[in-house]
Design brief:
The protein is built from 3 helices and 7 strands; from the N terminus they run E-E-E-H-E-E-H-E-E-H. With 132 residues, it is α+β, with helices and mostly antiparallel strands. It has one domain. The strands form 2 sheets. The chain has a 5-stranded mixed sheet. A two-stranded antiparallel ribbon has the order 6-7. The longest helix is centred in the last third of the chain and has 13 residues. It is globular and about 40 Å long. It starts with 7 loop residues before the first strand and ends with a helix.
């Protein structure tokens, strides 16, 4: 999975493990979302926290933020827009199409499918889940 860097405020090491999809921290009023649990892979170990930028200001936020708990961030690389393809229309009615806005193949020893994350839509989903 790839997260657009224009949506990322910071990346940090995260040692806290959770078996919950969403955890609210009352101290800093931030929401922590475990991507392994969200995508039904609870046994994957959390290694990094990815703080998303605020959708309104586009600036760093220390409070009221959304932090994605993820496995290890493997690399940071620029992906040209022409290499990103829309997900197939067959996925349209599923959660897949709203959480990912594109996909591309990373070539190397073997082809790997990389999904381009849609942070704005994901934040809407998380806010809806935390409101109920």
């Amino acid at each position: 999975m790839a997260i657009p860097m224009e949506s990322v405020s910071s990346i940090c090491l995260e040692k806290n493990q959770t078996d919950k999809k969403i955890v609210f921290n009352a101290d800093n009023r931030s929401v922590y979302v475990s991507l392994p649990v969200f995508f039904n892979c609870p046994l994957l170990k959390i290694h990094n926290g990815v703080m998303l930028k605020s959708g309104n200001q586009g600036s760093d936020i220390a409070e009221n933020g959304i932090i994605l708990l993820s496995t290890e961030v493997e690399s940071g690389q620029d992906i040209p827009d022409e290499k990103i393809h829309a997900p197939p229309k067959i996925f349209s009615p599923s959660l897949f199409s709203s959480v990912f806005k594109g996909m591309f193949f990373l070539s190397g020893v073997q082809e790997n499918l990389i999904l381009l994350f849609n942070p704005e839509q994901f934040i809407r989903i998380i806010k809806k889940e935390t409101a109920s």
